[in-house]
C-alpha cells in the first residue's frame, strides 16, 4: 500500500499535540496539589489497602475507588485488619476529648481514650458513659463497637505501639507541652499527633505546634491541628458540625479528615495553613471576651455585629503578619469559630467578658475554670507589637481585662478613630 500523502500527516500532528498537551496539564494539575509528593507516593504504593483508604483518595485529588473493585473495600488483609479502619488514641477524657473519641468511633475506627482517673475509666468501660463530662450521653456507637478507656501508662504505651496509630490530643492548652515533655519516650516518632487545644503556650508565647516540638525535643513529628466551631455537647447530640484540620503535609490532614468525618453529623475540611488555623483558634478567645463585654454593657445587635466584623479584620491582619493565610480567617477556623464564641453564652470567654463588666475580678472568674482568652490577650499584644500592628479592638479588650481603661474610654477610643476605608487591599 502506498504511503499516505503528506497532507494527511499535517492534519494528524496538531491533534496529537493537543491531546498530549491536555494530558500533560491534567497530570501536572494533580501533582502540583501535593506539597510532599514523595511521601504520598510511598504511602499509596505500599499495599492495595492504602489505595482503598478514603484519606489517600482525597489526597490525590482523584477518587480511586471507581477504579478499584468494590469487593476489596471492607475486607480484612493478611494481618487481620480492615481496610480504612485505623487505631486512634485520644489523650484526655474531658468534654472535647470525649466528643472526639465518639466522632472517631462513629467513623468506624478502633478508639481508645486515655485518662488518669481509674474510677472514671472503670465507669466508661462498664457503663459506656463518661461520669465526669457529658455524662448524659452514651458512648455506644452502633455497628462499630464501643470506646475503650485506659488509665495506666503501661496500657498507653502498648496502645501507642500499634503501627500507624493516630493520637488525638485533647488536653488543656497549658498542660499539653508539659505532658509531652514528661512522656516523650512514649510517643512514637512516626505517630501523627492531632492537636485540638485552641490556644497559645503562655510560658513561652509560642504557637502550640512549636511548643510541642520543643517539649518532644524533636525537629520533626507529624502534626495536625483541628479547629472550627464545635461545642462538644452539640457534637455528642448529633448536630451537624463542620471542622477544619491543618498540616504542613496534605497527607496528614486528609488522614485526620478520614478518621473524623462520618458523613452524617461531622464533616472535616482540610487546610495546608497550620499557622492560620492555630492563630484563628487561639486569638478568637480574647475577642470573645470583648463580645461578652459588649453584651454586658447593654448594647444591641448593631454594636455586637460591628465588633465581630472589625475584630475578624484584626485577626486577619495578625494571621498574615505571623505567616498565615488570610483566607484561613475567612473560614471555619477564623470567622466560623469567632461567631460561635462571640454569639453563644455557652462560651466561657463570652461569659467571662460579661462577668468582668459586672465588676468581678479575673482571679474570681478563674477560680473554678480556665478562661484562655484572658492570658491569650496578653500574647496577642506581644504579637501585635512584634509585627507593628495597631489592632485597636485587641488592645481595648486587653486594657479592659486589666482595668487600665473604663468601658466609656474604650468606646471613645474605638468610635473616635481616624477615618479610613473599610476594606484595605494590603493588610
Question: Could you outline the blueprint of secondary structure elements for this entry?
Answer:
Blueprint: H1 6-32, H2 37-45, H3 48-52, H4 54-60, E1 87-91, H5 95-106, E2 110-114, H6 118-127, E3 140-141, E4 145-146, E5 148-150, H7 153-160, E6 166-169, H8 176-182, E7 192-195, E8 200-201, E9 206-207, H9 208-216, E10 223-227, H10 232-237, E11 241-246, H11 250-260, E12 266-271, H12 274-296, H13 301-321, H14 326-329, H15 332-343, H16 348-357, H17 362-365, H18 372-387, H19 392-401, H20 407-415
Parallel strand pairs: 1-2, 1-6, 2-5, 6-7, 7-10, 11-12
Antiparallel strand pairs: 3-4, 8-9, 10-11
Helix pairs in contact: 4-11, 8-9, 12-13, 12-15, 12-16, 12-18, 12-19, 13-15, 18-19, 19-20
Descriptive overview:
The radius of gyration is 25 Å and the shape is globular. Helix 12 packs antiparallel against helix 13 (301-321) and helix 12 packs parallel to helix 16 (348-357). Residues 34-83 have low confidence and may be disordered. It folds into two domains: 87-272, 3-Layer(aba) Sandwich (Rossmann fold), CATH 3.40.50; 276-415, N-(1-d-carboxylethyl)-l-norvaline Dehydrogenase, domain 2, CATH 1.10.1040. It has 427 residues and is of the alpha/beta class. Strand 1 (87-91), helix 5 (95-106) and strand 2 (110-114) form a beta-alpha-beta unit. An eight-stranded mixed beta sheet has the order 5-2-1-6-7-10-11-12, sandwiched between helices. Helices cover 52% and strands 11% of the residues. The protein has 20 helices and twelve strands. The protein starts with 5 loop residues before the first helix and ends in a 12-residue tail after the last helix. InterPro entries: 6-PGluconate_DH-like_C_sf, 6PGD_dom2, G3P_DH_NAD-dep, G3P_DH_NAD-dep_C, G3P_DH_NAD-dep_N, NAD(P)-bd_dom_sf. Belongs to the NAD-dependent glycerol-3-phosphate dehydrogenase family. Residues 273-411 form the Glycerol-3-phosphate dehydrogenase NAD-dependent C-terminal domain.
